[in-house]
Amino acid sequence: MKKVQLVVIICVSIFAPLLLFAEGNRQTGTIAVTSNGKAPTAPVADRMGRSPFYLLFDREGNFMKAVGNPNFGKGPAAGGASAIDAIGFDEKGVMTGSIPTPSREERDRTWTGFSDFFSSNGIRFVVAGEFGDEIVRGMKMRGVECIAFQGSAQEAVGYIVKESP
User: Residue 48, SS3?
Assistant: First the structure.
């Protein structure tokens, strides 16, 4: 009986602070909104990897700063190319081009860049027009919640502040 109590006390003392930190992080984390412009009134950009800027807001919705996307324009692993970008038609109407597939090394380098950027800025939420499944899974593993939103950066942040506990 005493062993069971001891195990319970040890588990609670180890896991309770982690749960409190996770909940506190949800309430205090920075909000990053993808954007093609540096102003809070700019529209939310379509894709996270192709956005030149992140607009950072505190958890109360106050604009902090605009920062450059560290992975902007760094190739397909960072969202730099798509089928629309890579496929074309020649003068006879024949489809040309190919969709580039990033190497594992390129993908790892991209994830490292995103992880470093997000952790150094305390980012808990990222907003973009849409997200691919791989980005959602990867960000979730890193404790970042992906929120798809259409509208201005300010409207997106207002939604998060209002709807997230």
Answer: coil
Across the chain, mean pLDDT equals: 76
Residue 8 and residue 1: Cα distance in Å, rounded? 11
Among residues 106, 102, 142, the alpha carbon closest in space to that of 126 is found at 142
What is the rounded CA–CA span in Å between residue 101 and residue 110?
A: 13
Q: What are the residues whose beta carbons fall under 8 Å from the beta carbon of 65, sequence distance 6 or more?
A: 55, 56
- Which tokens hold the place of 61? 């919705």
* Rounded Cα gap, residues 51 and 69, in angstroms: 7
Q: Is 0.85 topped by the overall pTM?
A: no
Fold of 30-163: Nucleotidyltransferase; domain 5 (3.30.420)
Residue ranges per domain, the chain?
Answer: 30-163
